[in-house]
Each structure stands twice: as C-alpha cells, then as structure tokens.
Amino acid sequence: MITKTFTVNPFSMNCYVYWDNNTHEGVLIDPGAYESFEKQNILQYISSNKIDIIFILLTHGHIDHIMGNKWAKENFNVPVYMNKEDLPLIERALEQGEMFGVSFPQPPIPDKYINEGDLIKFGKTEFKLLHTPGHSPGSICFVDANNKVIFGGDTVFQGSIGRTDLWKGDIDLLLNSINSKIMTLPDEYIIYPGHMGETTVGFEKKNNPFLNGEYDRFV
Ligand SMILES: [Zn+2]
Fold it and tell me: What is the pLDDT of residue 169?
C-alpha cells in the first residue's frame, strides 16, 4: 500500500490518497483541497499512477476536511462515507466557512453513514471503523490492520490531540476515545493524522503529554 499525503488549504490539512500499487485501487480521505493548484496536484497524482478511486472517506465534518468535497465528488463520482453525527457540520458548512473567512461550494450530503465496527473493502484492502468522538461527535478512524495503519483525523497528533473548543467538542470524551480505542492498538501502528506529520501508537503512548500521564497532573 502507498500513502500519499497532500497538505492543503489555509488550515494545512492532510488529504490522503491510500492505494494498492498492485491492484491500483484506492481511496481519497478528507478531500479538503481549496486552491485550484491543490486540486490539480491530486488529480495529476491519481491519473499518472492510474489509481482507481473507489470511495471518498471523511474522518469528520469540519470545513478543512470537506471544503473540496463537491470537487472530489464531481471528479470521481464515487460514494462519500462519513459518520452521521457530523451531518449538521456538512449542512452548515458554508456558515462554518464564514466564521473562518473562507468560501467554497456546498459539500454534497454523504451517500452512506458508517459507524463503529463497519468494514470498508476496496480491492484487497479492508478498513475497520472506529467511532472516536470528542473532537467532533462523528469523528471516526480508519484502521487497516493488515498493514498496521490508522487514519486518525483530528483525534491524536504527534505530541498533541485534537481541539475540543468547537461544536460538541469534549475533552474527556476525546481522551477516552484515544485511550480506549487508538492507544490499545499495537505500538507499531502508524498514525496518519489530519494535521502535521505521521507518528506511531507507541511513540504517542510514551511521549504525548496528553496520553502519558503528564496532563493528568494538571487537571
Ligand atoms: Zn477537525
């Protein structure tokens, strides 16, 4: 499997193309492309590698993750999957955009709602879904157990965690999601987050101040 990262839009969000270099089947995760050159770069990469995009997958509904959804849906014409609890964020995306001073076309309503334990198969690859609320109520993670990879959205970052001051954010819920569902995976799992560089479960267990016990001493 190949993971290609495109860091896009004014929020420096990581859009991922995750694909099988044998079957050439893949998925587009969080298509937050904003500028036309960002969209061009992604399209160019997908066409030059002859990747067949099977699904568009959303880790959650914040604007930096969905501002390119209309473009992606029109280009690839494949189903968009997300968790239903973030639907209000999609419905009010343009309002969210105004709050942050960015404008973009209204993202389409997702085609299918996915939840804890669901399996998403494309080619020989399988994602298992984790529902990990706290950053947003519908935050989900995509886990490829065969390749020991997790696409974590804005749950856990290298040395940090997702913000919880937005709509329905909840720090206790987020820490519980991370500790009970992500940090219980084996140490060698690679985490591809929604912002900043990749990390591993083992590294965060040891070094992340929110997860290694340091944070608890201050609250
Ligand atoms: Zn977010």
Answer: 94
* CA 116–ligand 1 middle distance (angstroms): 19
Residue ranges for the chain with pLDDT beneath 50: none
Q: Domain span at residue 75?
A: 2-218
Say how many Å lie between the CA of residue 25 and the centre of ligand 1.
27
* CATH number for the domain that contains residue 181: 3.60.15.10
- Using the mean position of ligand 1's atoms as its centre, give its distance from the Cα of residue 60 in Å: 7
Domain count, the chain: 1
Residue-level pLDDT at 213: 79
Phi-psi sector, 182: left (phi>0), alpha (psi -120 to 50), beta: alpha
Question: Distances in Å between the alpha carbon of 89 and those of 94, 125, 137?
Answer: 9, 29, 10
Site of tokens 């989900």: 140
The model's pTM: 0.96
Q: What are the angstrom distances between the C-alpha of 11 and each of 36, 122, 157, 215?
A: 16, 29, 15, 26
